[in-house]
Design a protein that fits this description.
The chain is of the alpha+beta class and 122 residues long. It is 61% helix and 12% strand. The chain has helices at 11-27, 32-42, 47-53, 59-71, 93-96, 99-121, and strands at 44-46, 75-80, 86-91.
Length: 122
């Protein structure tokens, strides 16, 4: 008979798992980290600037992802009074709190890629 795994059902564990679930829901998808990282590095960028910087994303997807990020208060959208009208996007103060997380993900990715390449060379 197979023994049932013990799962930590403490309130702290449940709160932590809910927080992880919420975070994954807000930041899920292929492009959100790319967009956030670009805005953290680039400060204020127009839609076309983001389209050029985030390699491979299409206009509809960029628009959708920016709307999601704006709805979650991670990105702000400013309509400029120009002809033609232009829009600038910027990381919000709260969105900027993701900077250490994005930096750690990048660091992990670099180390992982190097370990894979090293393993292939051996």
């Amino acid at each position: 008979m197979k023994k049932k795994a013990v799962v930590n059902n403490t309130q702290v564990c449940q709160i932590r798992m809910q927080a992880i679930s919420d975070t994954m829901s807000i930041l899920s998808g292929k492009w959100k980290f790319h967009i956030l990282g670009t805005l953290i590095e680039g400060n204020r960028l127009g839609f076309m600037d983001l389209l050029r910087e985030v390699k491979g994303i299409g206009t509809k997807m960029l628009s959708k992802e920016l709307q999601d990020l704006e709805m979650n208060h991670l990105v702000s959208r400013t309509v400029m009074k120009t002809k033609p009208i232009t829009v600038e996007y910027a990381i919000t103060e709260y969105g900027a709190t993701l900077s250490p997380l994005i930096n750690e993900l990048a660091k992990w990715g670099i180390e992982y890629r190097q370990s894979i390449l090293k393993a292939q060379d051996n």
